[in-house]
Write a structure and sequence with these properties.
heterotrimer; B: about 350 residues; alpha/beta; Rossmann fold; 2 domains; 7-stranded parallel beta sheet; elongated; C: about 300 residues; 9-stranded mixed beta sheet; two-stranded antiparallel ribbon; 8 helices; about 30% helix; about 20% strand; globular
């Protein structure tokens, strides 16, 4: 017997302070979507089911009580901290969901510069943690574009990755231990050790669960020394992506770990580099960082590798350094982009996938060609590779289209989902993964069985085991 | 060196027409109101003459109303009833009156050019703003002279005028040299806040009627809109500015309400105006109003140079921002690291409570 | 109506670090004023950035390595021109759009974009001279193009540019063409009889009036601030069209002579010291901080005001 909205709110009010249960209509409506359907907030047209409440959780104990309440009464819960999700993970897929917001749990618990670890609650903004450790000459090494706005809980829940991952790794390489609460109220604390072989690595049940299994309340991440003075930049223009991927592969296979290694196709390069790249140029760029000897050897090694490719024309490193210094998305850039969308109805979207070296260029070419042929009103269709490994890389499709003849709420059905569909199809065909780092969310959940194949059994069993009543973020990862 | 101050008073007086739908409350905003345009423009010219125009010969530190520099004011007017009031505002003793039709910048430029032909005037001074810039520029084009707008200061030398103005959207100041005369300088509007006007006794040296000389008004069906200009910002002594840190339109409205509660004039930064979170006439900065308040509270703005140019002459700047690395933190006298909307609302409540007590 | 829109492509000044501005303050601007390294097309005359641009010392502000963008008021002007054209065409009246830029090869992609958006004419005046602080020369070129080549009857452009910001170019062009000029324009709408209803922010507030062509409209703080975006199909349709490239001589302008007589000249760059003490007012809550501020300074100050 599902609870009514009023009964849900009543129940929540008995658990937390009345002020921590938010039922303001505008806030609820805006909380029904995340960046996947951001046009709904930009144009103030809302079609998703409206949550019953947003409830601020201020402690692990409160999270326990809230989850128990939800589990007992079958209330859909959406865990949230920084709210920067891009794939619908924070959307309310069913009526009367409750968003449990951990952004008030924003205490940095400890910074241990000797053991190179920092512990913080789920609501600590990454920028705040990063600024604090910088004061000690350290860095988290984690720098997703959402850094100014994202919080630690969400960053771990989505298996996020940052701009310097080729050196520091993704969040999964940075998490040491954590604390999470499961629907039945079980508080699980995974301790901080450098490595162990005491059975399977259960951190990976939590990292990337996207709120479909548990609520992350605390994380401990590694710290690294910070040597910005040794940052070295390198850049080239070249005419084709195949060469670009080949160079990236060379660099990775030879063991170099630049913090940034990217190749942009001409369309995407045109957005950032038109002051030195011609209309048909790809751009290849690297940043080497770390202790002086490492940064130098990395830069020299990369230089030697690219020197063997005469198709690559080097550009002064100042171009790359200047671009790099202006990368971050602060609040005013976001609101300016919202206004640009309102005025022009031209929307910028991204979809990122991963694959091995043999497949990546084919996936890029095939998906791009199909999108241009099959989707109307495209104004730019391009992308770049930005996270490389010894055995492959990602492809970050970056594309723009005008929303024509339909309301903003139909952008997903007319353009965005069909494009995602093409990208997923071409990727799955060639054995790649349909999502590199944004998370499955709800947007790509329809492809989950294709993505997992027979291993879907493991995912499905985890879901049934940890969330038997199906209250954790319905529709995320596993579709409704 | 001889100079002429040019006052365009042709929109002053009843002939101009009051703003559409205006009632008594808009008296301050008409061209002839005490805080209105012509007063501020005249004040700017007077202050610039006194403190902004210098001779670079050694030891000379006083302004142009000085032995070395002699000048007069040329007043263009249309409405006889405004004439006396305009003369009273002239910053020099000698005043020349010229009557013409209203809003004829090309006609005024032609008349000034004829005057410049004789070589009697080295420097023409105009009040800054769109109209003054237009006149200065058109005159320079017609007379073979050189023009510069929004001038902050000027130094005369025998063969050139060295002027300073803001460039690169408030990032730097540029020093420019004008060589060919006449020098046509539009004074930065911020001079209107420099204060300390001296009362000058006037002598009307000449009065001519040039009506009927030029062509018709190139523009028709003029209509003054109800929306006021940002005049209230330029002359205000207490300004509250909201930046994009207000979060959204609602946040901006709340800061505006708090500002009103405290008796402050409300302004916004460019991102806020461009997002339509507030009307464009609230814009402060290089492309908006230049303020010089005794107190300026900057709520949720990071302090970009183009914006800061609009408040840099404030006596006391208080910054409220959640980001301790925002540039404004190093540019303010006092800093509160907290949410802009919350702090402003609390402050307004405290000010209101204090007012109640008294 | 034959509409000409003039635009400027500038470095993204906001992407420059504060340290570069401080460094620039110590330098002398190059002759002609403004940025040191002049920017022309590459040696082969192609539209791409010239390798020669990378070399050379920078005097003035070093903008060699930042991206180029449409100057913001010019972007408003371009979109306003498009909307005016749409409105005229919607009323069954002819409205051909032309676009002009001067100097920067970075303008080529924008000119191509404008062709894709339906502009009939797109032209670039090639010059290596730095014109940021040379409004008379800039105006001479615009007026010559509009008057002699394009024969336009309406010129739309931004009211002020980012580097110079003097706002004099529109009036200088108007003087050369003998046209009236309106500045700080925020909206333009066509009237049935071919005249234009123009909204602008004057010295004394928001005004609306009717203008006849030919005239110059200089766009200020308009709400319309973003240029629409052409589709790939739109671009494909004009793929074989290239913007015209003209020399000042083609316009009948002796640029060297105009620059010689140009004034005023930019003699020096000065930094702006914005630094203040930044004393922190502490408190545990917004209320506590507000109270501390009030007690410490505001109470007495507000009493005075």
């Amino acid at each position: 017997m599902p609870l009514s909205r009023e009964a849900i709110v009543e129940g929540l009010r008995r658990i937390v302070e009345p002020g921590d249960v938010v039922t303001d209509e505008q806030i609820l409506v805006e909380s029904s979507v995340d960046n996947f359907r951001k046009l709904q907030n930009i144009f103030n047209v809302h079609t998703m089911p409206v949550p019953a409440a947003v409830v601020m959780a201020r402690s692990t104990e409160k999270v326990v009580e809230l989850l128990r309440f939800a589990d007992e009464h079958g209330v859909n819960v959406i865990p949230r901290t920084g709210a920067t999700a891009t794939e619908g993970g924070l959307e309310s897929a069913v009526a009367d969901s409750v968003i449990i917001d951990g952004s008030a749990m924003n205490e940095i618990v400890s910074i241990d510069a000797y053991n190179m670890q920092a512990t913080c609650q789920c609501g600590v903004p990454l920028q705040v943690l990063e600024d604090r450790v910088r004061e000690l000459g350290l860095t988290t090494g984690h720098s997703p574009q959402s850094k100014p706005v994202a919080h630690m809980g969400g960053l771990v829940a989505t298996r996020s990755i940052g701009q310097f991952s080729t050196l520091y790794g993704g969040i999964e390489d940075m998490v040491v231990g954590l604390e999470a609460v499961f629907p039945g109220g079980q508080v699980t604390r995974i301790k901080n050790v450098p490595r162990r072989a005491a059975g399977p690595d259960i951190r990976h049940v939590v990292i990337g669960n996207e709120g479909a299994l548990c609520f992350i309340t605390e994380v401990t991440v590694k710290l690294f020394p910070y040597f910005p003075e040794n940052n070295t930049f390198l850049g080239w223009t070249l005419k084709d992506m195949a060469t670009g991927f080949a160079v990236l592969r060379d660099v990775m296979v030879n063991g170099y770990k630049p913090s940034v290694a990217r190749v942009y196709d001409p369309g995407d390069a045109g957005l950032h580099f038109s002051h030195f790249a011609a209309e048909d140029d790809c751009v290849l760029l690297f940043m080497a960082e770390g202790a002086a000897g490492i940064a130098k050897a990395t830069a020299e090694g990369i230089q030697a590798i690219v020197d063997k490719h005469p198709e690559c024309t080097q550009v002064p490193s100042e171009y790359i350094e200047t671009w790099f210094n202006d990368l971050c998305w602060d609040a005013s850039k976001i609101t300016a982009e919202d206004e640009r969308i309102r005025q022009t109805r031209n929307v910028n979207r991204t979809t990122e996938i991963s694959a091995d070296w043999s497949s990546i260029n084919d996936i890029y070419q095939a998906a791009r060609a199909r999108i241009i042929a099959e989707i109307p009103d495209i104004t730019m269709m391009g992308g770049h590779s930005s996270h490389s490994y010894i055995n492959g890389t990602n492809m970050y499709f970056n594309y723009f289209f005008n929303v024509v003849d339909v309301g903003p709420e139909e952008e997903t059905s007319k353009y965005y989902l069909p494009i995602i569909g093409i990208i997923c199809e071409e990727t799955l065909k060639r054995g790649g993964s349909i999502v590199h780092h944004h998370g499955m969310g709800k947007a790509r959940a329809p492809w989950v069985k294709d993505e997992y194949g027979s291993s879907y059994y493991v995912l499905e069993t985890l879901k049934h085991a940890f969330d038997p009543n199906g209250i954790m973020n319905k529709g995320t990862i596993i579709p409704l | 060196m001889r100079f002429t101050v040019v006052m365009d008073g042709t929109s002053a007086g009843a002939a101009d027409g009051t703003p559409a739908g205006a009632g008594e409350g808009t008296a301050d905003r008409t061209a002839d109101g005490p805080s209105g345009g012509i007063h501020r423009r005249a004040a700017a010219l007077g202050a610039f003459l006194r403190d902004g125009l210098k001779s670079d010969s050694a030891g000379a530190s006083r302004g142009a109303i000085d032995a070395q520099l002699a000048g007069d004011t040329l007043v263009f007017y249309s409405d006889e009833r405004a004439k006396d009031r305009l003369v009273a505002l002239a910053p020099t003793r000698d005043v020349r009156l010229v009557r013409i039709e209203a809003r004829r910048p090309e006609r005024m430029a032609a008349l000034l050019s004829a005057r410049a032909e004789g070589g009697q005037t080295d420097l023409f001074l105009f009040a800054g703003g769109p109209a003054g810039t237009e006149l200065a520029t058109r005159l320079a084009c017609r007379s073979g002279g050189q023009a510069l707008s929004e001038v902050l200061s000027a130094e005369t030398a025998p063969d050139r005028l060295s002027c300073r103005r803001s460039i690169y959207s408030g990032h730097l100041t540029g020093r420019f040299e004008l060589s060919a005369r006449p020098w046509c300088v539009a004074v930065d509007p911020s001079w209107a806040d420099a204060g300390g006007s001296e009362t000058v006794a006037h002598t009307i040296v000449s009065a001519i009627d040039e009506t009927g000389g030029g062509g018709p008004d190139p523009f028709e069906d003029r209509e003054r809109m109800e929306a006021p200009s940002s005049e209230d910002l330029a002359g205000s002594s207490f300004v509250v500015v909201a930046g994009s840190g207000a979060g959204d339109r609602q946040g901006v409205r709340r800061i505006a309400a708090a500002a009103r509660e405290m008796g402050a004039t409300f302004g916004v930064t460019r991102p806020v105006a461009m997002n339509a979170w507030a009307p464009m006439d609230r814009l402060i900065g290089v492309s908006g109003a230049r303020t010089a308040p005794a107190l300026c509270i900057v709520a949720g703005a990071s302090g970009a140079p183009a914006f800061f140019w609009g408040i840099e002459r404030a006596s006391l700047i208080v910054a409220v921002n959640t980001d301790e690395h925002a540039p404004i933190v190093g540019e303010a006298d006092l800093v509160l690291l907290d949410d802009a909307v919350a702090v402003l609302e609390e402050l307004a409540a405290i000010v209101a409570a204090e007012r109640e007590k008294r | 109506m034959r509409i000409l829109a003039y635009f400027k492509v500038t470095p993204d000044y906001e992407a420059l670090r504060e340290s570069e501005w401080s460094a620039a303050a110590g330098r002398v601007p190059s002759s002609g004023g403004g940025e040191g390294t002049s920017r022309g097309p590459s040696a082969d005359g192609g539209a791409g950035p010239g390798r020669g641009e990378h070399a050379g010392p920078a005097d003035g502000v070093d903008t060699r390595y930042v991206r180029r963008i449409l100057d913001c008021f010019d972007e408003s002007a371009l979109e306003i021109a498009l909307r005016l054209s749409d409105a005229l065409v919607g009323r069954g009246r002819a409205a051909g759009l032309g676009a002009l830029s001067i100097g920067a090869p970075g303008a080529e992609p924008h000119l191509k974009t404008l062709l894709a958006l339906g502009f009939e004419r797109a032209a670039r005046v090639h010059t290596e001279a730095a014109l940021d602080f040379a409004p008379a020369a800039t105006a001479a070129l615009i007026a010559a193009y509009a008057g002699r080549i394009d024969r336009s009857d309406l010129l739309v452009l931004g009211a002020r540019s980012s580097p110079g910001g003097g706002g004099t170019v529109p009036f200088r062009v108007a003087e050369q063409l003998g046209w009236p000029c309106l500045t700080q324009v925020t909206e333009v709408e066509p009237l049935a009889d071919g005249r234009l209803r123009v909204t602008l922010m004057g010295d004394d507030g928001l005004q609306r009036l009717t203008a006849r062509t030919p005239c110059v409209l200089a766009v200020g703080n308009a709400v319309v601030s973003h240029l629409r975006v052409p589709t790939l199909t739109d671009r494909l349709a004009v793929r074989d069209r290239q913007p015209d490239v003209l020399e000042p001589a083609d316009l009948g302008v002796d640029l060297a002579d105009v620059l010689r007589r140009e004034g005023p000249s930019l003699a020096a760059l000065e930094g702006i010291d914005r630094h203040r003490e930044g004393v922190l007012i502490a408190g545990d809550t917004p209320r506590a901080k507000a109270q501390a501020l009030f007690d410490a300074r505001l109470k007495s100050l507000l009493e005075e005001l």
